[in-house]
Amino acid sequence: MKKTISILGSTGSIGIQALQVIKSLGDDFKVVALVAKSNVDLIEKQVYEFNPKIVALSDENSADLLKNRLKGNHVKILGGEQGIIQAATIPEADMVISSMVGFAGLIPTLEAIRAGKHVALSNKESLVTAGHIIMKEAANSGVNVLPVDGEHSAIFQCLDGCRDRSAIRRLILTASGGPFRDTPSKELHNISPEQALKHPNWKMGAKITVDSATLMNKGLEVIEARWLFDIDIAKIDVIIHLESIIHSMVEFIDGSVIAQLGVTDMRLPIQLALTYPDRKPSALTRLDLAKIRQLNFRDADMEKFPCLELAYKAGRIGGTMPTVVSGADEVAVSAFLENRTDFMDIPEVIRQTMDMHQKDNFVSEPSLDDIVMADKWARNFAEHIILSKFSLSKESEVK
Fold this sequence. Notes:
There is one protein chain. By secondary structure, the chain is α/β, with parallel strands linked by helices. It is 49% helix and 16% strand. The chain folds into 3 domains: 3-147, NAD(P)-binding Rossmann-like Domain (Rossmann fold), CATH 3.40.50.720; 150-265 and 283-307, no CATH class; 318-399, Rna Polymerase Sigma Factor, Chain: A, CATH 1.10.1740. It is built from 16 helices and 12 strands. Strands 4-3-2-1-5-6-7 form a 7-stranded parallel β-sheet, sandwiched between helices. The protein has a 5-stranded mixed β-sheet with strand order 11-10-8-9-12, with helices on one face.
């Protein structure tokens, strides 16, 4: 039976690779909806290749431009948040691939679940900010939330067949360590955006690549894993694994450790999420351990990379704090990429935002409205910190 797919974020790294996987799987899959931000040129090509029923662009001017380009084509072009939600809840879709970047992916993901769609989840912010809501709604709707990220897919596979979660001693998320794993701490203040975007093992979008460089990406994955696998955050560890061959591990109470291995190719976890509970053949590169010869590990250095500790702290506090970390991180990373702040200012902006939130407007059991408000507040406060620093540095230059 053909499986029908809606892709939220089709012009991003995960979306592009998901379409490659769908194409390789042949007639068993059909794309019925595509969502992007503003990349008109690429999504126009995707429309002609995959022939969806609906296309939505969050940027309404880009949606109007696409309408003009596709005059005479049967595809329905929508713009703005409501258009994205229509694409996420289109009746023809069995599954939604949620790979939009940032907090903007939360509401469409939630609406897809409420509409009874299985979700292949790559949007971290959905679980980081509203994991308690997402997982409850998924249970109520009787749908699967299947991880697309390599680390969570690995744990999902390691736990396959584990009937008793009390048998789990800990989850072990592996991290490459990013481009600065061997860089002395004193040199991190001079890191440029160009350097931060050179990941040693993976090719990803700009935001997630910088998050990998600060280890915030791994910290957010810890919070995600807490909700995906319903496990206390104290039982989730991070270890640096230089080769990115072991994608994550599960240690059980009897001392056994189960690991999932594979080449560094995101199409592997994407395909599993699409075909689950089945596995299908693929033409992807095979893992050759004899050629690799050795695998290396080291502890994660939270002093050198404070973003990881800040994410753990937010996860332990819970409530609206993970939302605040996520929002402040998005603003700080954006400012860094725009050369408005330094690499090591990223954790400092996040820390100050967390401290102020704890004092002023923390909510321990947030509703969806509380989460939306916390995200907005965090972004505004983080931007205020950055603007204040920027103004002071300009003053200093003048003097």
